[in-house]
Design a protein that fits this description.
By secondary structure, the chain is mainly α. Helix content is 69%, strand content 0%. The termini are far apart.
């Protein structure tokens, strides 16, 4: 009896093949989003580069605005203050409270390529009453700080 019933069953039909065209609405959205991203990506990258250049220029300008005729002690204090203001604007509050060798260690840890000897006046000489820096030392310090700003993206 089971064999008779089984013989009467109609085998199921195979489903129709799934066509690749037209794609589902999700694929249309994905394709449109990727196309939009491909069109906007060069513009977004250019805007990001401009913003970064502008920020670097402003950072360098902050250091360039320090009067060169200041006595060495005041000049070093102004450089140190401006540098810590840049870090504070970036949101690095802990670094603004560092001083001496800890401050120098922080600067050197953020950019291993920077010359520690050029930044040494920010650590040791900053707190001495009489500091004598040559024009070459001032220029070397500013050059290393510019390199640090460029590397650290302040």
């Amino acid at each position: 009896m089971d064999a008779d019933l089984q013989a009467q069953l109609i085998p199921p039909l195979e489903p129709a093949p799934i066509l690749w065209w037209p794609p589902a609405p999700g694929w249309w959205l994905l394709g449109g989003s990727l196309l939009l991203l491909a069109l906007l990506l060069p513009w977004l990258l250019r805007q990001a580069r401009r913003h970064k250049r502008r920020r670097h220029r402003l950072s360098w300008q902050v250091l360039a605005d320090i009067p060169t005729q200041l006595p060495d002690t005041q000049w070093l204090a102004a450089v140190n203050t401006r540098l810590k203001q840049l870090l504070k604007q970036r949101g690095d509050e802990a670094a603004t409270r560092l001083y001496g060798e800890a401050w120098l260690d922080y600067l050197c840890s953020r950019n291993p390529q920077v010359q520690r000897s050029a930044l040494q006046p920010l650590a040791a000489d900053l707190y001495r009453p009489q500091v004598q820096l040559s024009a070459a030392q001032r220029e070397a310090l500013l050059r290393e700080l510019r390199r640090w700003i460029r590397y650290d993206d302040v």
